[in-house]
UniProtKB/TrEMBL annotation:
Keyword Mitochondrion: no
Keyword Lyase applies: no
An annotated Gene Ontology molecular function: dioxygenase activity
Keywords associated with the record: 2Fe-2S, Dioxygenase, Iron, Iron-sulfur, Metal-binding, Oxidoreductase, Plasmid
UniProt name for this protein: 3-phenylpropionate dioxygenase
Superkingdom field: Bacteria
Pfam families: Rieske, VanA_C
CDD domains linked to this entry: Rieske_RO_Alpha_N
Ranges where the Rieske domain occurs: 26-129
Length: 348
């Protein structure tokens, strides 16, 4: 009997790559407080990863799979420079290499790298992981969450929608005047607007032309090693010291039907004013802001997974259209780059 023919895997399309999540980027995968002493297992970009802290507090990230039998390493123990599998005690280090197999004194598997390691850094109260191939790009964060004159408070939540719905939502300033009309911070201003896009060094701003400094009047997207969005909402003195209330947002895909959103709430304050603002925020504003996020979550989770295919967009959606075009180009570049080695091999 002839052996069955091998079926070549179909090449991934740019659309599929974009739906699953762009790879050549840094993503916040968890707030820093979530990773304590024990290993932490997560699914991000449909990949299972395990995080743990070494003896110096640094973060390690590898495939959450024991190379022996496939058990989740996150169910095991943190040994500092390595994690040990609960199933048979196999120890794997931060480079994805097998350090020891306690059950067998001599084993050819020792020293083999059978797990993928992911570059990981800790910034702005969150753990960022690079999912791309090769050397990671430099990670440059917006000034609001880079320290210095700004103070920030991070909130994060799991949303049951594709990650693209979440970024589209932030790139839509007009929804603030309707969905969030009862919010203490977005109850004012005109419910009509003429919109325009303005280029920046790292992306673009989409803004209202007829009002500014009143409501959710503009939003910006940038790619600087990570994809981020930011906006500003005017606040009165009753909200505490500092200028306008800034928000920096990032979204990491969990899988094709869910994501985790990260929102840093920021104000430009130093010294005692920083502590005063954080106290007032926790005491008076945080619960109100969670209500706003819940409104976004309910709308997005209620949308059909194929809603984008049935849209009838109009002028206010110009920022979304431009963002999608930018992401399409990034996805196409990733897919083309991934196919290059195969093409070179075929020509050889």
């Amino acid at each position: 009997m002839n052996a069955p023919a091998k079926i070549a895997a179909s090449p991934i399309t740019a659309g599929q790559r974009l739906n699953e999540g762009l790879r050549e980027m840094w993503y916040p995968v968890a707030p820093s407080w979530m990773l304590q002493q024990a290993p932490l297992g997560l699914t991000r970009l449909s990949q299972r990863i395990v995080l743990w802290r070494d003896a110096d507090g640094g973060v390690k990230a590898i495939d959450d799979r024991c190379p022996h039998r496939g058990a989740r390493l996150s169910m095991g123990w943190n040994l500092g420079d390595r994690v040990a599998c609960w199933y048979h005690g196999v120890e794997v280090n931060g480079e994805g290499r097998i350090e020891d197999i306690p059950a067998l004194a001599k084993c050819v598997m020792k020293g083999r790298q059978l797990n993928r390691a992911f570059p990981a850094v800790e910034r702005a109260g969150a753990i960022f992981v690079w999912f791309g191939e090769g050397e990671p790009a430099p990670l440059e964060l917006p000034e609001e969450i880079s320290g210095g004159e700004w103070a920030d408070i991070l909130c994060t939540a799991h949303w049951k929608c594709n990650w693209r719905y979440a970024v589209d939502n932030v790139m839509d300033p007009m929804h603030g005047a309707y969905l969030h009309a009862q919010s203490h911070s977005m109850a004012e201003g005109d419910k009509t607007a003429t919109m325009r896009a303005r280029d920046t060094e790292s992306g673009f701003v989409f803004e209202k032309t007829n009002q500014t400094g009143v409501n959710f009047d503009w939003t910006e997207v940038g790619v600087t090693g990570a994809l981020w969005l930011r906006l500003s909402i005017p606040y009165g003195k009753s909200a505490g010291p500092g200028g306008s209330f800034g928000i920096v947002g990032m979204v990491v895909p969990v899988d094709e039907t869910s994501c985790r959103v990260f929102f840093w709430r920021c104000r430009k304050v130093q010294g005692w004013s920083r502590n005063a603002w954080k106290f007032l925020y926790r005491a008076r504003l945080e619960s109100l802001h969670w209500d706003v996020l819940e409104q976004d979550r309910l709308i997005l989770e209620g949308m059909d997974d194929k809603a984008r295919e049935q849209e009838a967009l109009y002028a206010h959606d110009g920022g979304i259209v431009r963002l999608r075009r930018m992401l399409d180009q990034l996805a196409a570049a990733e897919v083309a780059s991934a196919s290059e080695p195969a093409c070179e091999h075929e020509r050889a």
